[in-house]
Write a structure and sequence with these properties.
Elements: E1 9-12, E2 15-18, H1 20-36, E3 44-50, H2 54-69, E4 73-79, H3 85-97, E5 103-106, H4 116-122, H5 134-141, H6 150-165, H7 170-175, E6 178-182, H8 189-198, E7 202-206, H9 208-212, H10 216-220, E8 225-228, E9 246-249, E10 253-256, E11 263-266, H11 271-277, E12 280-281, H12 288-304, H13 308-312
Helix pairs in contact: 1-12, 6-8, 6-12
This protein binds nicotinamide-adenine-dinucleotide.
């Protein structure tokens, strides 16, 4: 992905609000050019959604719009929440075999009776653009990724860009910094740890048990950078961060406004109070999310371009 020189942040009362949409717009333009240059057969993305969770449906709609705007083939598989595991696995099998599809994403959350690991193991590793198949997840952990998962990539792209735009050398910044990640899902938090380690940062991982035992704040206050992906609205307040933190909010939570009864999306940061203490904060919406979407399509283009011999080597299914 090619960075640019346009301003991608706004300063508000001392702190900077990082503009993820502006960054995503640039990446999208770059990607559109690459897709246009990629020949007659466009990359194809498939989303697999089981059930009707609001945030997953919103994500599916966004990805569908973006894929179609970029001229990609798009296939949306939406199965009912009570689908049998065998039916979901069979759907993945069909997508694996479909030559129009180069990338597949399993949207989350899944219903409780569908173990996500079973679905991930069924994905064709060469179409696993979120790097959740054990082969691809292992490659990410080794620092030799085939695909870098879109959400943590987007968070680190945003950080790298913000640091460079504000006149710092990202490499030396990370070497001297502590990054605290809250949440350690296989999709977001854990690959985020690997990306932080690759940058030679000191990385701390916190999860719900840390919070349950009253230790979360102790660690979050140590972060020069705080990346939050817990799915808990307003989990982190201004009291939980150190002065001058750069806070990246990955959380996307649907909350209903009691007065208007309307649903809106909020992050895991208590935005106002964190903003008061921070150097910079990414907002929700308009932060990591739009970059994530473009990144996923970029991975799909990469998957479409994997040479034939990689497929012919044979991969475990
Ligand atoms: P997940 O539910 O799989 O994982 C959440 C993680 O946070 C788990 O490790 C859980 O134990 C931990 N956690 C829960 N409560 C906690 C607490 N009180 N304190 C500390 N840790 C806690 O979710 P996920 O898929 O990793 O997604 C996390 C959030 O990021 C969700 O809100 C999701 O909607 C959002 N998300 C955003 C993007 C994006 O593009 N911005 C993409 C994917 C997910």
């Amino acid at each position: 992905m090619t960075p640019s020189t346009e301003p991608t942040a706004t300063r508000t009362a001392g702190a900077t609000i990082i503009d993820g949409r502006a960054m995503a717009d640039e990446l999208r333009e770059d990607l559109a050019n690459k897709i246009a240059a990629s020949g007659d057969r466009p990359p194809g993305l498939a989303t697999l959604l089981v059930g009707d969770v609001y945030t997953a449906m919103a994500y599916e709609r966004r990805l569908g719009r973006l894929a179609q705007d970029l001229g990609c083939h798009y296939d949306n598989q939406h199965l009912p929440a009570d689908s049998e595991l065998a039916e979901v696995l069979a759907t993945i099998g069909r997508l694996n075999a479909d030559p129009r599809i180069s990338g597949i994403i399993v949207l989350r959350p899944l219903p409780d009776h569908i173990p996500e690991e079973s679905l991930y193991r069924r994905l064709d590793p060469l179409k696993d653009v979120e790097a959740v198949h054990p082969w691809n997840a292992g490659l990410v952990a080794l620092g030799e990724p085939r695909f870098v998962p879109s959400t943590p990539s987007a968070a680190f792209y945003m950080l790298d860009r913000y640091l460079a735009d504000s006149g710092r050398d990202p490499s030396s910044f990370y070497e001297k910094s502590t990054i605290v990640l809250v949440g350690r899902s296989n999709n977001v938090g854990k690959p985020g740890l690997w990306l932080g380690l690759e940058r030679h940062a000191t990385v701390i991982s916190c999860d719900r048990w840390c919070d349950e035992h009253g230790r979360l704040r102790h660690y979050t206050r140590q972060g020069d950078v705080l990346i939050v992906a817990a799915g808990v609205p307003g989990l982190i307040t201004g009291d939980d961060v150190r002065d001058g933190v750069i806070a990246i909010d990955i959380g996307i939570n649907a909350v209903t406004d009691p007065e208007t009864d309307r649903v809106r999306l909020v992050g895991d940061l208590d935005f106002g109070s964190v903003l008061e203490r921070a150097e910079a904060v990414s907002p929700v919406p308009g932060g990591v999310g739009p970059i994530t979407d473009v990144w996923l399509l970029a991975n799909t283009l990469k998957a479409a371009g994997l040479p034939r011999w990689v497929h012919e080597l044979g991969q475990p299914r």
